[in-house]
Automatic annotation (TrEMBL):
Organism: Sphaeramia orbicularis (orbiculate cardinalfish)
Family: Belongs to the DNA mismatch repair MutL/HexB family.
Name assigned to this protein: MutL C-terminal dimerisation domain-containing protein
Keywords: DNA damage
Taxonomic classification: Eukaryota, Metazoa, Chordata, Craniata, Vertebrata
Signal sequence interval, chain numbering: none
Pfam families reported for this sequence: HATPase_c_3 (PF13589), MutL_C (PF08676)
GO cellular component terms given for this protein: MutLalpha complex
Domain MutL C-terminal dimerisation: 286-430
Superkingdom per UniProt: Eukaryota
Length: 470
């Protein structure tokens, strides 16, 4: 019996990001000829599997390798998966009698009818993964069964039919190559290319989970961009210890500190967020100032009260967020960061965002993975100091939204403090033009509803039509 620990459950953490957790199941090494599932059972099995992302494609191929009893799995990509996805293993290989049915829909060696589902101990059983991948890419297989002396290259068309078979040198195992993933769906293909950094990051996170729970299986992942050097981004040693796998992925110092935190929070949607969109602020009529702290406005039949300090504070905060480039302080000597391979890759892919936040790095692409990046400069600002924890937070955010400008929470706190000091204070008298300026500013930012500290910027007071009816 070959044991593997895996079940994916996704939930939302307190920052709104997806967190993947792993649970324990066992998997045996199946055997048997590939044959069609009977039509009745096909309809009973849950809905067909559809490959929607790069992560799903890699996941399916890696699971096939694990199901084949592989102890070594090598994932290779070109252009982060746009040009090529290739997964090689040293599993049992595919018998020649099974070549024709390998990529046909609902053909599998795992089950024969619906009752067999009770005894399924493998990742795959539907017989749809390779069929779906054939329909979405140019798929070829090089395999050598444990009973064969020489390997065979198999080329399939988009319907999963075998169109070419030729001898090919290979040791025991199987290599599946996907060229031009999603090329048969032009719109999806363009979207895939446009969002490739995000697709690539999500794929690495999924693969990271397999690296951790696949005890006794060596998994590596590498990528090559253009004619550049192939870079290893993930690697485990095939240890029988999950603890050692965690160390290989996250670094030895992080083994005892891996904690997944899942929580949810309630969010109250205020009246104005559903009734007022930010394009309408310029149409608000200024009625006057109340108690030297609130602006009373009218929009059609609705009366609003706007907190003059909170709204100016939010506008100034957003301007600081968008336009401030923090200055850095050089370190005496470059500092090692002890990043995981995935985190290191996220940092290198988003280096400009780190620079805008005042972090400078020394990059050595020829160095060993997890040692390619050294910190050489930290942002400074009077009483505020920053360090590796802020870098880790940025990496966490960018892994979910690569290429999107963001700030560590402590930088946001600093900006909130600055915005508060420079904003119009409660107790300050304002003329109509000054009040109008503050209201119009609200329409120039995407989320004007709360100040940086969470206080509402405006309240709906009344609807004149309702009052007149009463």
């Amino acid at each position: 019996m070959f044991y593997i620990y895996f079940y994916i459950c996704e939930c939302t953490c307190f920052r709104g990001h997806t967190v993947t957790s792993c649970f324990l199941i066992s998997v045996s090494e199946p055997a048997g000829a590939i044959r069609a599932i009977d039509k009745h059972s096909v309809h009973q099995i849950c809905s067909g599997q559809v490959v929607l992302t790069l992560a799903t494609a890699v996941k399916e191929l890696v699971e096939n390798s694990v199901d084949a009893g592989a102890t070594s799995i090598d994932v290779k990509l070109k252009e982060c998966g746009v040009e090529l996805v290739e997964v090689s293993d040293n599993g049992k290989g595919v018998e020649e009698a099974n070549f024709e049915g390998l990529t046909l829909k609902h053909h599998t060696s795992k089950i024969r009818d619906f009752s067999d589902l009770i005894h399924v101990e493998t990742f795959g059983f539907r017989g749809e993964a390779l069929s779906s991948l054939c329909a979405l890419s140019d798929l070829s297989v090089v395999t050598c069964h444990e009973s064969s002396q020489v390997g065979t290259k198999l080329v399939f068309d988009h319907k999963g039919h075998l169109v070419q078979k030729s001898p090919h040198p290979r040791q025991q195992g199987t290599t599946v190559s996907l060229q031009q993933l999603f090329s048969t769906l032009p719109v999806r293909h363009k979207e895939f290319q446009r969002n490739i950094k995000k697709e690539y990051a999500k794929m690495l996170h999924i693969l990271q989970s397999y690296c951790i729970i696949s005890v006794g299986v060596r998994i590596t992942c590498s990528n090559q961009n253009g004619q550049g050097k192939r870079t290893t981004v993930l690697c485990t040693s095939g240890s029988q210890s999950m603890r050692e796998n965690i160390g290989a992925i996250f670094g030895p110092k992080q083994v005892g500190a891996i904690i997944f935190v899942c929580t949810s929070y309630l969010h109250n949607t205020a009246y104005h967020q559903t009734k007022v969109n930010y394009y309408m602020f310029k149409d608000m009529v200024i009625i006057g100032q109340f108690n030297l702290g609130f602006i009373i406005t009218k929009l059609n039949s609705d009366i609003f009260m706007i907190d003059q300090h909170a709204t100016d504070e939010k506008y100034n905060f957003e301007m600081l967020q968008q336009h401030t480039v923090l200055q850095g302080q050089k370190l005496i000597a470059p500092q090692k960061l002890h990043l995981t391979a995935v985190s290191e890759n996220v940092l290198m892919e988003n280096i400009e965002i780190f620079r805008k936040n005042g972090f400078e790095f020394l990059i050595d692409e020829d160095a060993q993975v997890m040692e390619r990046v050294k910190l050489v400069s930290l942002p400074t600002s009077k009483n505020w100091t920053f360090g590796p924890a802020d870098i880790e937070e940025l990496i966490f955010m960018l892994s979910d939204s690569p290429g999107i400008m963001c700030r560590p929470s402590r930088v946001r706190q600093m900006f909130a403090s600055r915005a508060c000091r420079k904003s119009v204070m409660i107790g300050t008298a304002l003329n109509v033009s000054e009040m109008k300026k503050l209201v119009v500013h609200m329409g120039e930012i995407e989320q004007p509803w709360n100040c940086p500290h969470g206080r509402p910027t405006m309240r709906h007071l009344a609807n004149l039509d309702v009052i007149s009816q009463d």
